Amino acid sequence: MKSTKILSMAVAGLMLMAMSSCRKDLCYNHFRTAAVSLSWEQEWERDYGMAHAANWDEALHGLTYDDMRPELPELVTLVTYSDEASPRETFLPVEGDDVGVDGLSGTSFLLYNNDTEYIVLADMASLAEARATSTSRSRSTIEYLTQIHPGVRSTNPPDVLYASFVEEVPFIDLHESRHLPVTMQPLVYTYIIRYEFEYGIHHVAIARGALGGMAESVYLRSGATSAESSIILFDCDVKSYGCEAHVRSFGIPAFPDEYYGRAATSRADEPYTLNLELRLTNGKTVEFNYDIADQILAQPRGGVIRVSGIRIEDEENLFNSGFDVEVDDWGEHEDIDLPVGVF
Fold first, then answer.
1. Residue 24 has pLDDT above 60, yes or no
2. Whole-angstrom Cα distance, residue 320 to residue 335?
3. CA angle 210, 131, 85 (to 5 degrees)
4. What backbone torsions phi and psi does residue 209 show, to the nearest 5 degrees?
């Protein structure tokens, strides 16, 4: 009888330990997890017939095609949208990480890099309307461009921006982790802008430019640009052949991106204008403006823009003003931060 009682107590103890172990396991494993792994498309331009990658002239540009590729960002924001809850943010490293999933209906993921300085996000509570735009930047000397592009905002070039969208996260059961590969695609592209001089580059002290007619914003979900245009303001480097700038842009307005599964179109009716403003060594300012619609429409998402035949005659720089020419002498030139869109 005594041995039976001891045996019963032992069995009860084992059962208690087993139950405790199960509860502990459940405590640590009751989450649904998407194991998000990120890969990156480090493209600086999209090929719509120019074949820059195949025909790259390293001697002309002084760098390889691959030198232009954007670097990987520092951190990624993943926003979870569902039919039954408010959007929720999770922060991931660039290689990805495990993300808890609630098992709610209509769950989608929107991902973008968040290490930007000149990007403003708006309408993030609405998946269809979530978009990125650039901060405003003013310059009092772009009167010609404001006449060609009336009522549009002048901006900084946007930062490098990647994004991706998972329309429907697969159902993940309790205690389950499912691998979810995601490709991050660029939403900002680069134009190499070359102002090629025929004569007089030795008269140029500093230079800056503007690119009118480019998209003001891009939708994070689709990769399509907004219909609104902007004037992008930028600084130039003075080279032996002329002036050069690497200018980031969302591309042309109202452009469905075929790389996001939508057919590409062009807007031939829109003006596209390139400006060059020079401060000569004598302090005088000289300005040039170009219609570059043909070049932009052939390269709606990054590429190479070239204008040539620029001349600064010796007579334009005869009299030295006697002061050092500096960027501060160019007048109004300031960055204005816009309110950040919130959930």
1. no
2. 31
3. 165
4. -145, 180
